[in-house]
Amino acid sequence: MIYLKLRQAGHRVNHKRVERLYAQEKLQVRRRRRKKIPVGDRQPLIRPGAANEVRSMHFVFDRIASGRALKCLAIVDDATHEAVAVIPEHAIGSDHLVRLLDEVCALRGRPSIIRTDNGKEFTGWAMLTWAHRHGIALRLIEPGKPNQNAYIESFNGRLRDECPNEHWFVSLNHARAVLRAWVREYNEERPKKTLGGLTPVQHAKQLAAKAATFDPGL
Question: Whole-prediction pTM value?
Answer without folding.
Answer: 0.79
